[in-house]
Amino acid sequence: MSNILIPQNTITLGPLIDTFVPHGFFCNENPDVSLYIWDDFKSRILSAASAVTNQPALALSVHDLAKNMYDNDIRGELPAAHVFSTADLWVIGALLKLQPRGEAGPLLNNGNANIFYVQVGDRVFTVSVLWYRGLAVWYVRAWGLGELGRWDEGYRVLSRN
Questions:
Q1: Cα atoms found within 13 Å of the Cα of residue 148, Cβ hemisphere only
Q2: Using CA atoms, how far apart are residues 123 and 7, in angstroms rounded to an integer?
Q3: Which residues are CB-neighbours of 45 under 8 A, at least 6 positions away?
Q4: What's the rounded Cα separation, in Å, for the pair 156 and 161?
Q5: Pick from 43, 74, 77, 40: which is nearest to 146 by CA?
Q6: Which end of the chain is more exposed for a tag (fewer CB within 10 A), N or C?
Q7: pLDDT digit string (tens) for 72-105?
Q8: Pairwise CA distance, residues 161 & 159, whole Å
Q9: Is 49 helix (H, G, I), strand (E, B) or coil?
Q10: How far, in whole angstroms, is CA 125 from its chain's centroid?
């Protein structure tokens, strides 16, 4: 690994023993987690997602960006299996449940983005989750690779191991 990503820790979530319904969780009316779900996440990610049940525990690597970087450069530094599937959306949900109102935890809550790469069909999207203190909500968005431009130093990348 180069000096692009600063390793933070490894987090293990799960196993998921219940059913996770992405459409029920990732909505602006979620009573348990303060969320604002952007239309790009709905159309690009949720539209392809289905409920999942009984998923095994999943280990995540957590890294912070050491400098401003583009998606392709970031992805080149991550493990080969870094991309999440829509069946793994329960992992993002589990992380958000740990910090439902922007509390301290594994996700950055300082306005910096938490980045996940999620595959839908043959495309990979960048999902950003960030705490917007002004409205006291987690913003959840989906971008095409490179669509936003650079991700800033200090942002966090979470990946499959």
A1: 20
A2: 26
A3: 86, 89, 118, 120, 125, 127, 142
A4: 15
A5: 74
A6: N
A7: 999 999 999 999 999 999 999 999 999 999 999 9
A8: 6
A9: coil
A10: 11
